[in-house]
Each structure stands twice: as C-alpha cells, then as structure tokens.
Amino acid sequence: MAAWLSRSLKQKNASWLQPCPTAIAQVWFSGMGRASSASGALSVFQDKPRTVEDLPRVTFLEMIYRMVFQGFYNRIHELQIYEKQLYGPIYRDGLKSVSVNTPKLLEEIMRNDEKFPCRGDMSLWKDYRDMRGFGYGPFTEEGEKWYNLRMMLNKRMLHPKDSVQYGGVINDVVTDFTKRMYYLRQCSPTGDLVTDVANELYQFSLEGIASILFETRLGCLEKEIPAGTQDFINAIAQMFSNSMAVIVTPKWSRNLLPYWGRYIAGWEGIFNFAIELIDKKMEDIQQRVDNSQDVEGEYLTYLLSNTQMSTKDVYGSIAELLLAGVDTTSNTLTWTLHLLSRNPHIQDRLYEEVSTSVPADHIPSAAEITQMPYLKAVIKEALRMYPVVLMNARIFTEKNVVIGGYQFPKKTAFMLCHYAISHDEDTFPEPFTFKPERWLRDGRERPNPFGSIPFGFGVRGCVGRRIAELEMYLVLFRLIRLFEIKPDPAMGELKAISRTVLIPNQQVNLHFVDRGCEA
Ligand code: HEM
Fold it and tell me: What sections of the protein cross the membrane (predicted)?
C-alpha cells in the first residue's frame, strides 16, 4: 500500500490551493532514498557540478515517523523549521521535489520564473470542472491559456489604482462589520467580549470579496446569517477536508469510499453558490441591455460584458477567486488582532497613527489608508509571522536551472517553505517576535524582500493582493480607532495549525473595549 501511495503521488506537486493535501502528501510520501550528509549542500570545493543526487534527502520512514508519531501532520510550518535544522537550506524530499527555506534560494527560484510559471499538477481540482464542463480558473489553468486568462482577470483588480475604486464598497462592508461587533459585544456577559472572532472575520471577508466580485451584498453581517452563505462556507470546508483522503486513495475506490462523493459535493456547493450569483448578474445586465440602459458596473459586469469569456469560463474563474479570497484575508486579520491584543505597546502606536492621520469623524478612503506606514507595517509583520499560505511551489517546465549551486533538470519541482523563510534568523533577528517597525522606511536597513513574500511573486503572484490589502487596512483602521483590543484571559496559548492555510488551533475570543470615539 505504502509503495502504491508513494508511486501514485510521485508525479503530484504542491501548490497552496491544491494545497495542504498535496503539500502534505508530498512530505508524507517523500522519497525512499537514504539521507545524505547535510553538509554536502554547503560544500563549495567541488570540481564536478553538484546535482540533485548530492542533496540531503528525507526518507519515507523518517517522514511517516515525523508525521504520525511526532504529530507534524497538521504542523507543516513547524516541520519546515525542524527540517531546516536537520538538512540545511536545500534538501530533497524524494518525490523529486526539492525544498528550499532561505530568502536567498527563494529569490534564485523566483528570479528564474518562466513566462507561464507553473505551481504543479492541479488535476484534482480539474476533475470536478471537467465533470461539469466548467472552464478552468486562474489556479487550474496552465500555459498560454493561463496567461491570457490572467491578463483579463488582472484588469480592474491587480493595479493599486484599480483597487482604489473599491474603497467605498469595502468601507460600507467595514461599517456593517463594526455595527456587528457592537451588537456581539452587547450580547456578551462582560459587554465587550466577542467570541470566535475568526468566524466573524470569515463572514466579513466573504461579504467583502462578494461585494466586489458580484456587486451585491450577501447579508453575512446581518444578525441572522443567510443560509446560503453558511452552506458555501461549509462546502469549502468539506472540499478541503476530504481532499487529502481523495489524494491518498486509489481512483477505483471512489465509488466505494465516501471521500470522493463528499469532495465533489463540496465543489458542487462552491460552484452552485457562485453560479447563482453570476446568473443573477447576467439577468440584470440583459435587462439593462433590453432597456437600452448603459451597462456599467464593477468586476463581474466587466468580465461578462467586456471580455470574450464564455459563461462557463466565468463560472470557473469567479469560483476560484471567491474561494481564494476568504480564508486568506480572514485568517490574516485574526492573527493580526491576536498579535495586537498581546502587544499593547504596538497597539498604542498604531492607535496613535490611526487617530491622528485623518479627522476623527472621517472614514479614510483607499488612497488615504495607503499613506499610513505603521498600519501597513503591522499587516506585513503579521503576514511574516503567520504567512497564511505557508508553502508554495514552482516547476520549471522549459529549462534546466542552477539553484544554490546545484544543477536541476527541467520539470524539477521546488517546494518553497515560506514559513521557515519568513522566520529566518539571519534576515529577521528575533523571528518569533512581533516587530512591525522592521518594515518602516525610516532610515533603518530593511530586510531582504524575499524574506517575506506572502502573496507570492511575479506574473503568477496573487491576483487579489491589492484587494486583500485594502480590505485588511480599512477594517483594521476602523477597529483600532473604535476599540482597544485585549486578550481573553480564559483562552490558553494560541498556536497555529496548518490546514490548507495557517489557522489558529482554537477558537479566538477577544475583548473589544470601547474607546468612546464614534457612535
Ligand atoms: C491575505 C490575503 C492573501 C494572501 C496571503 C494570498 C496569497 C496568495 C499566494 C501566496 C498565491 C500564490 C502566488 C504565487 O504562486 O506566486 C496566491 C494566488 C492567488 N490568489 Fe491570493 N492571497 C490572498 C488573498 C486573495 C484574494 C482576496 C483573492 C481574490 C480576489 C486571491 C486570489 C488569488 C488567485 C486567483 C491566485 C492564483 C493566481 C494564479 O495562479 O494566477 N487571493 N495568493
């Protein structure tokens, strides 16, 4: 069985959204060879060029032991650091993939990006789309088709000047979120406690991204959350939680075991949710056209009316944008609030900036918010400490490359261990300490930019980056202006676990003490 699993997974490569399951699988079933000396990776006195065979290697049994007996299966981020100590900056995991964990090596890989960068095999995600005849989205598409798709999706989203236009829409969502926070506090016994903050931020992020993509409000921040949105959230969880089982079980067992059915039902829920909203928007556009009215609008209207995309392709892309835009932003915000609650001096400094940058009764615009260096540094540092996408991948499909002095043939898969990289002690002294000032442009030496690239890099980098940043800046500004955020003493130590993205290991409760600034 183990041999079969190892073989069947050999061709699969990691990417963050085929993500943890495959990434974990790669680590789980990584290579059968013996570990060679870690010092081999560091030797410079070689007359023959070093190759992949000279790299330190993790054996299959070692990995099983670590995952199962040492419990790293949901602590992949800690495993990255552990293996860095054991094997050094570059090593082989046996699935013909090569893990790197320093900013310098990451930079070498990213600077080699090809015209159509590839993160790995997405066949698991493609299966559902093929079954239903939907187009591939930005995660699943490859090669030139991916490039053309990205050219369309980038418009109205990726450039800072594009995201600025969504400031008003996001601010409306933020206003509703703050109202909800007041309501939730009132319901608590202490009058200021909000329980399960991560879930609240999840609803915020879904409302935010949906208001941009669909130009419509879902009502996730109302007192009663609409049933459809909860179904969508559950569907995402179902798809992710069954992915691993689907990867490690053979295709022939799909009708015998429950995992495949649940996995597909998860996708069904995600797509149904997106399709209903897209179809509604199409009817709306059609009506406007029939009435000879102008067809103007935001993102989805642009995709439907200004591009050559077929409806089925729009379904595929919008579903993937929606999926990518919720867990990432919401978990980053949860980590940020947690860090601020534990570091009152940093929160005070942030409040200082927030309360002096714009008049007290003024809601900052998208342009104003980007002029607040400390606020941006707080988010950047939170993403360094908790990079929600803790690992990524690149495969050079067209060329041989030299990385870290080793020669690699084309099609070598590189695993980018982002968590270990952004905790690299040489780049970030005291890497486990929250220090937003690292990122200030106040004359101090700034860290190597490749030390923390939470949104990836280059043409295949995150398409939603600007939107995500804007959402996070605007909501953090308002929360800090209104409330002093304090930890709940009843909570134990909060740790991260890796479940597709880096999430807290327990429910996060926080006190939101009213500063008395705004009604
Ligand atoms: C804190 C928030 C976010 C983080 C940390 C994040 C991180 C990432 C990372 C690391 C990648 C891979 C990039 C690479 O391979 O170089 C990525 C890709 C992607 N992200 Fe995000 N993301 C965030 C929010 C969003 C949002 C809000 C959206 C949707 C609007 C989004 C949509 C996507 C898409 C579609 C891709 C695939 C791009 C492609 O393959 O062409 N992300 N993201």
Answer: none
From the CA of 468, give the closest atom in ligand 1.
27
Write down the ipTM of this complex. 1.00
> In this structure, are residues 232 and 269 in contact, taking their beta carbons and an 8 Å threshold?
yes
pLDDT digits 0-9 by tens, 64-108: 888 889 999 889 999 999 999 999 999 998 566 899 999 999 999
Q: Write down the domain spans for the chain.
A: 52-514
Class of residue 222 by CB neighbours under 10 A (exposed 0-12, middle 13-18, buried 19+): middle
Residue nearest (by alpha carbon) to ligand 1 atom 9: 455
Residue 16 has pLDDT above 50, yes or no: no
Beta strand 401-403 with 406-408 is antiparallel
Tokens representing 506? 């327990």
Locate the DSSP E strands across 277-422: 391-395, 401-403, 406-408, 413-417
Rounded CA-CA distance 5/248 in Å is 6
Tell me, what amino acid is at 50? Answer: R
Q: Which of 302, 462, 498 to mutate to test the pocket of ligand 1 (most atoms within 8 A of CB)?
A: 462
| Protein residue closest via CA to atom 11 of ligand 1 | 462
Tell me how far apart the alpha carbons of residues 436 and 328 are, in angstroms, rounded to a whole number.
20
The tens digit of pLDDT for each residue in 306-332 reads 778 889 999 999 999 999 999 999 999
Q: Are 417 and 391 in contact (CB under 8 A)?
A: yes
Q: Which helix (H) or strand (E) holds 486?
A: strand 483-487
Collapse the DSSP code of 30 into the 3-class scheme (helix H, G, I; strand E, B; otherwise coil) and give the result. Answer: coil
456 Cβ closer than 6 Å to some ligand 1 atom? yes
Residue 515 carries which side chain, given as an amino acid letter?
R
The domain made up of 52-514 has a fold known as Cytochrome p450 (1.10.630)
pTM for the predicted model, two decimal places: 0.90
Instruction: Give the number of the atom of ligand 1 that is nearest the alpha carbon of residue 456.
Output: 16
> Where do we find the tokens 């601010």?
171
Cβ(328) – ligand 1 distance below 6 Å: yes
Helix (H, G, I), strand (E, B) or coil at 116: coil
